[in-house]
């Protein structure tokens, strides 16, 4: 009943607002397209795909759209995008996702739009992913990757649903490396953490409607006290509190939990530049842990999944990947090290190309926080205007990537990367709000693929998706499959 009421209210208020704001962009000499968010909410594909249709249809570098009722601007010009995400960040730091104070798990650095709060938490959490901590955490990542392959060997029918299996690995490795929670082996399949992470980000009509309301009518979202993750609060906060309690009596592991305990020991967190203060309560830190868990598990699983789909369709590229991995495992090595990750250069190029074709995050949005202008043509952007950055469309732009439908890892050779604009490839976002766990995710990706493709190859099968799942931000095709075949050298 609540969803039906919400649908009705959204429709009525959007209609009223659009009629009132109609021609907002046309009156400024900008091409205007209406209804993209509504098409997505009631459509059959992802929002990044709808944005790509608009991107491809019009030659303009700036296209007027609406985030529900909010006049917004889709950007193509990479210098404009750089200004929004970095150069003029103070004017565009908001993501535009409303979070109610009662949504405890939604109070994380991915969703927070309150600048002083976001800045303080981002600063305090960044040390989780220093080189020293990553090197320590890699031991757990590598063990999880090896356990993952052992699990497949013990029951190869598990790969009938490959995305589910990959999700198990990413959730298990985050749990082990970042939080010190051992959920490896067969127990990982039934882990409540894996099940929770899956449920939290699986696209549904309910979550898409909440996304629409949060974007288009923040006042309505707040009035109705809607929450994205309410069903997971009791379990996850309770679990994190239990981990905190156990780790206070245990040996330090130099991971996220240790950092949280250090923050709590030091008392009130304070930003000397903004003077903003925040208590590091269990609930505040649990929200950050929740963000690492669900965002990292889903996006990395998607990147692994699409990498394997592309390799299955390109045997020549797959052979080169095998050569790269075999070189690292030569001389009878039974483990790989943190330093070995730098030797998997060709594998890294393949992963980048897969994330170009199928970016884990297919679109980003921002809300203007003060009147400003774009650098390319001095177009004035008013406060509360939305910005859409269509990553999926940019990654498939033939002006930036010739023959964009072709899988070509050489695009990401060291010499070619140097020629790229910084914002032509945004697999992990960009600018000041770039993915905080980017380096950790790359270690997960390469360790998993190295162990998996050391023992298995892929049956040739070309991947040609008609459309992706109805996600508001990502590209997902969880039902796509490929067949693993044991290699003769093992």
Structure, explained:
The chain has a four-stranded mixed beta sheet. It has a two-stranded antiparallel ribbon with strand order 3-4. It has one domain (2-486): Orthogonal Bundle (Cytochrome p450). The mean pLDDT is 87. α1 (2-21) runs parallel beside α9 (205-216). It is built from 18 helices and ten strands. The chain is an alpha+beta fold and 490 residues long. A hairpin with a 2-residue loop joins β1 and β2 (70-75).
Count every beta strand, where a strand is a DSSP E run of 2 or more residues: 10
Uncertain parts: none
CATH architecture: Orthogonal Bundle
CATH superfamily: Cytochrome P450
Here the CATH topology equals Cytochrome p450
* Alpha-carbon Rg, integer: 23 Å
Number of helical elements:
18
| N-C termini distance | 57 Å
Give, in order, the helices and strands.
HHHEEHHHHHHHHHEEHHHEEEEHHHEE
Mean pLDDT: 87
The total domain count is 1
Q: Beta-strand percentage?
A: 5-15%
Placed side by side, the strands forming the largest sheet appear as: 1-2-8-5
Instruction: Categorize the overall geometry.
Output: globular
